[in-house]
Amino acid sequence: DVKVTQSSRYLVKRTGEKVFLECVQDMDHENMFWYRQDPGLGLRLIYFSYDVKMKEKGDIPEGYSVSREKKERFSLILESASTNQTSMYLCATGDVPYEQYFGPGTRLTVT
Amino acid sequence: KNEVEQSPQNLTAQEGEFITINCSYSVGISALHWLQQHPGGGIVSLFMLSSGKKKHGRLIATINIQEKHSSLHITASHPRDSAVYICAADNYGQNFVFGPGTRLSVLP
């Protein structure tokens, strides 16, 4: 079974704080993805990575950065959290164009 | 850019009813995925299809490539089927484009 874990299920941060969300997979997949999910908008791709130290912008990268120092770990960084970044964040891994495997999600609230 | 739409947005059904959720997309794709998201957030993949029809238990997924349309059917629905169902268009290995989801509630 593929296992994708995320560092927190729920997180509350203040405006301006630096926020780290971490995702770890145990399946040796090349590709890893960070999405945010908002009501009525569905999942939107923030960044993805197809190899260690490689990253590509998705549809909504503004205000975010990522880091992939090891194959199994993909981090999403909010340099200065803002209230409009309150959302559910989902990490996924897989070998596109095949299935993607999702983590449990992190519900982030920025106050 | 591919636009993916789903209908209905919300659906309430009585246990035992036959349910259909629709998905349409604007640009040709390599595959269409159906995902299920239960309360709490976890997403699991139900189907990946590029043509025809697939069946898994009480779930059936169909796709019409010419019409750029896919449907997910649930036969003999059960309260444990209550979830958000999401379709995702697979753009030839680039990335997924997700529909907004259909929230299904099945009442006992």
Sum up the structure in keywords.
heterodimer, A: 111 residues, mainly beta, 7-stranded mixed β-sheet, 0% helix, B: 108 residues, 5-stranded antiparallel β-sheet, globular
Overview of this protein structure:
The complex is a heterodimer of chains A (111) and B (108). By secondary structure, chain A is mostly beta strands. Chain A contains no helices and eleven strands. Chain A has strands at 4-6, 10-13, 19-25, 31-38, 42-49, 56-57, 64-70, 73-78, 87-94, 100-102, 106-110. In chain A, strands 2, 4, 5, 6, 9, 10 and 11 form a seven-stranded mixed sheet that branches. In chain A, strand 9 and strand 10 (100-102) form a beta hairpin. With 108 residues, chain B is mainly beta. Chain B contains no helices and eleven strands. Chain B has strands at residues 4-7, 10-14, 19-25, 31-37, 43-49, 52-56, 59-64, 69-74, 83-90, 96-98, 102-107. In chain B, strands 2, 4, 5, 9, 10 and 11 form a six-stranded mixed sheet that branches. In chain B, strands 1-3-8-7-6 form a five-stranded antiparallel sheet, with no helix packed on it. In chain B, a hairpin with a 2-residue loop joins strand 6 and strand 7 (59-64). Chain B is globular and about 40 Å long. Chains A and B meet through strand 5, strand 9 and strand 10 of A and strand 4, strand 5 and strand 9 of B.
- The general outline of chain A is globular
Kindly provide the radius of gyration of chain B, computed on alpha-carbon positions and rounded to a whole number of angstroms: 13 Å
- Span between termini of chain B: 41 Å
Largest interface: A-B, 24 and 24 residues
Any idea what the radius of gyration of chain A is?
Answer: 13 Å
Low-confidence stretches of chain A: none
Mean pLDDT across every amino acid position of chain B: 92
Helix content of chain A: under 10%
Largest sheet of chain A: 7 strands, mixed
Assign a percent range to the helix content of chain B.
under 10%
Series of H and E elements of chain B: EEEEEEEEEEE
